[in-house]
Amino acid sequence: MAAQVALKQRSSYRLHAGDQLTVQFTYTPDLNQAVTVQPDGYIVLPSTGQVQVGGRTVDEAIKLIEEKAAGHLKDPEVAIVLTDFQKPYFIVAGQVNAPLRYDMREPTTALKAVMLAGGIKSTGKEKQVVVFHDMEGASPQVRVLNLKKMSDPKIFEHDMELSSGDIVFVPRTTMDRVADVAKVAATFGLYLNAATYIITR
Q1: The pLDDT of residue 197
Q2: For residue 191, what pLDDT band results from cuts at 50, 70 and 90?
Q3: How far is it, in rounded angstroms, from Cα 15 to Cα 55?
Q4: Measuring CA to CA, which residue among 81, 22, 70, 77 is closest to residue 48?
Q5: Disulfide engineering: 121 pairs with which of 3, 95, 146, 186, CB 3.0-4.6 Å?
Q6: CA–CA separation, 42 and 192 (whole Å)
Q7: Is the whole-model pTM more than 0.70?
């Protein structure tokens, strides 16, 4: 029971394909339904039809379902209970000593992620650590961080907090163009578009 309550309270969690959830209608419980987020990010409900929830937070998904259900129900009130979901994680790849997918058990920054991965190899470009951030969200970003002097107290000015699903990539060669970053993104199945912000620190 305690675990279910904890799942229910993850309002800022972004939904992913394969997540299992129960959509509850407060005033019309006969419409309650257990669903699984499909590979394309959609769920199907009797009162709304198809709803794309993949990449949205639980709160955003609730609002969207309520808006769609309002066409059939008066002032619908919806709750989402996550019954099974993807555990938060991040990936560290490229020129690090232990490139892996890591469970995110606590708030983690790019710098901490690199350290967990055993640090940057001598062949890595410390001044151009690329972070693919929130790529499934509404504001995807690519940030290029300078982690050259990891022992310098000012290094924290160049750090950033990660979200689940983020990828930290340490390149072997200098990346001078957006095309270089896009090429790296493609190796992870990510594709940059007009909504992707590229930020250099």
Answers
A1: 63
A2: confident
A3: 5
A4: 70
A5: 95
A6: 22
A7: no
